[in-house]
Specification:
The protein is α/β, with parallel strands linked by helices. It is built from four helices and seven strands. Helix 1 packs across helix 2.
Amino acid sequence: METYISKSAEETFQIARKFAENLKSGDIVAFNGDLGVGKTVFVKGICDYLGVTEYVNSPTYTLVNEYHGKEHTIYHMDIYRIEDEDELFNIGFFEFLSEGGIVLMEWAENAEESLSDYNVIMVEINRDGENREIKISNRVKQ
């Protein structure tokens, strides 16, 4: 597990850019953390590194935003409002996981059971006073 302390949104963005250097097609990155801790800022940093020129925002109401980088398609999901596996199936969740793009999933704890058959990079962001503690680890399928 790697742990980083970010003192600003810009630092979070730069940590994410560095993190993105090792991403490849088929990777699934699962974000957990409270509202407003910087999950979307982290996603913006990843997308910036991968060459996305489109505006990156949280897909809170659309559930999935698709971006095109220089070499990868990026699927940015926000599954905060998802309540069960049937809803995941209805939004095409499992198809996105098998498309070969990079999946960036906010509120991944809502799909934890559905992700058990996949290798997932876990990014947990927590508030530590004014700072953010960012923990990155790999979870191998069970």
